[in-house]
Amino acid sequence: MRASDRAYATLRSDIINWRLTPGTVLGEVELSERLSVSRTPIREALAKLTAEGLSEPQSGRGVVVSEISLDHLEELFELRAALECKAAELAAQRRDPVIFLALYEKLSNAGELITAQDPDRADYYQLAGELDSAVDAAVGNHYLNLALKNLRVHLVRVRRLSKDNPVRLRDAAREHAAIALAIAHGNPAVASAATTVHLDNSLRHLLSTAS
Amino acid sequence: MRASDRAYATLRSDIINWRLTPGTVLGEVELSERLSVSRTPIREALAKLTAEGLSEPQSGRGVVVSEISLDHLEELFELRAALECKAAELAAQRRDPVIFLALYEKLSNAGELITAQDPDRADYYQLAGELDSAVDAAVGNHYLNLALKNLRVHLVRVRRLSKDNPVRLRDAAREHAAIALAIAHGNPAVASAATTVHLDNSLRHLLSTAS
DNA sequence: CATCTCAACTATGTATACATAGGGCTTGTT
DNA sequence: AACAAGCCCTATGTATACATAGTTGAGATG
């Protein structure tokens, strides 16, 4: 594996998991020492992060970890609504019913995954990720998938702005199940509407519990 | 200005204007000689182009100008519909009526801009760009604007796949005028619908006249 | 004659040295 | 004491040298 890829993966993970907080200066020299590679791969990694929007040029000199705050939340969800509603619509037109019926079943029982034993909700988020992947595959649109991928980076970051509580997660799982069912039924309008409802609930919850 | 920025701008323009055709190998050494800079800024430029989707890694070694074909057209327009309809909706809710009424007037008379004297339709496309910019400004959503910006790069490239004829451009100008008017009136549903109609017409035209 | 293997060359990945610009600190003057 | 100006330091921008991997071509063997 290339050193620049390792540096990129490390920094990306550090930013997404808030080990590097917004506003942190990403100095080339400091990073090259910390990650034990020369400045060249570090520069490459920083360029990729900046292209993704995880870091920003700082007034012409150096880059900093980009801000993510409540102001960005509503903007982020406007884009999310546009992309995910369209994706749900197209998926409903092109889906394999078997796949989405199976996901519907799993999501309907997702309440069991949310236990005190798993404080990070890794199982739950993995299942939600499976739905996303299935939608992406059904849509089969390279450009739409790319836009969604870019968006999800920021959504993962924003998750840390609020405490997720078990009640909301169980509701969210039910909403996901409703989306999967509408797609399985091949009903674009309902799939899009269910997505709109889910996103509105998610945004309200995030705004109400944000720290 | 930084050498890497110049290299990036030059290459970007060359790709968008089809001076570098899809599939062309972008060798670092060759480019550094042609543009008279060292490989370092060239690498930076290629990384940005690849992040934008204008070039792609070629099986692990080197990058090539990315393909753009009729297959991509329909995918591109699905994403475009999602983003531009949402943008039109939000613009209608947040617009300054004066600005969009003025654009409506200009677009209504845009037929005069399409003359034999201007084979590149520079004036027409500039006016269309003004509408895009006004919508972006009215929406005021950083993430949505960024997604639209990334999309437009590919749209400009795709334009060359077809011959634009004056009749279609005059129709397109009328459709743009309708969008501007709906936004000026503050009617999100109509703005979105007018955008849907416009995009459908554009896509049909592109597909029918493609070379 | 075709195919496989080895070697050499070329292009990319990485490191480092050098140039340069911008910011901060210190000092002097008002 | 405060503000401005100049110098120094540090971090980024660029160039280049070196390492390495992949590809291509040539030669030998079946």
Measure the end-to-end span of chain A.
Answer: 39 Å
Largest interface: A-B, 28 and 28 residues
Structural class of chain A comes to mainly alpha
The name CATH uses for the topology of the largest domain in chain A is Four Helix Bundle (Hemerythrin (Met), subunit A)
Q: Sheet with the most strands of chain A? A: 3 strands, antiparallel
Helical percent range of chain A?
A: over 70%
Assigned CATH architecture of the largest domain in chain A? Up-down Bundle
- Distinct helical segment count of chain A: 9
Number of domains of chain A: 2
Quantity of strands of chain A, as a count: 3
Tell me, what is the CATH class of the largest domain in chain A? Answer: Mainly Alpha
The succession of helices and strands of chain A, N to C, reads: HEHHEEHHHHHH
Computed CA radius of gyration of chain A, to the nearest angstrom: 19 Å
Oligomer state equals: homodimer
Unreliable runs of chain A: none
Global outline of chain A:
elongated
Strand percentage of chain A: under 5%
Report mean pLDDT of chain A, rounded to a whole number. 92
Largest sheet strand order of chain A: 1-3-2
InterPro entries (chains A, B): GntR_C, TF_FadR/GntR_C, Tscrpt_reg_HTH_GntR, WH-like_DNA-bd_sf, WH_DNA-bd_sf
GO molecular function (chains A, B): DNA binding; DNA-binding transcription factor activity
Pfam families (chains A, B): FCD (PF07729), GntR (PF00392)
Domain HTH gntR-type (chains A, B): 1-68
